């Protein structure tokens, strides 16, 4: 169902589809891989090391997008904005990796859906783009699928007689 929502947002096969949108799908796959890897590492491996590996992966994949825009030297203001963004990204990586390693996935994952809200708001504020009805419908399917997964997992736990997890703490 969530994939159907993503397809509604991307609309492949229509004039609204832009192949560059596939980068967003690749990004989601990379985030899922990072999260799964984060949980699989030994506790002896520091979260900062895991975050650094993810950042190196992003950096190494950057040349794949090189042909999508004309490159030029950033202005001092743009360079400052890039440095600030890099600082926030570092904090975000460390926070997400730590949350996925220590927290219960069912508790941490719903916070990802706030990305849709921020993406819509940034699209409007920066580019003046308003989501159309197909985008809203797709977003509703994605969020609905996520909420269904969370509720279903909670009910399965209760059915097995397991106590609900303490929010944010993995057993």
UniProtKB/TrEMBL annotation:
It comes from the Bacteria. The chain crosses the membrane at residues 20-37, 49-67, 79-99, 111-128, 134-151. Residues 21-145 form the EamA domain. The keyword Transmembrane helix applies. InterPro entries: EamA_dom, EmrE-like. Keywords: Membrane, Transmembrane, Transmembrane helix. GO terms for cellular component: membrane. It holds the Pfam family EamA. This is DMT family transporter.
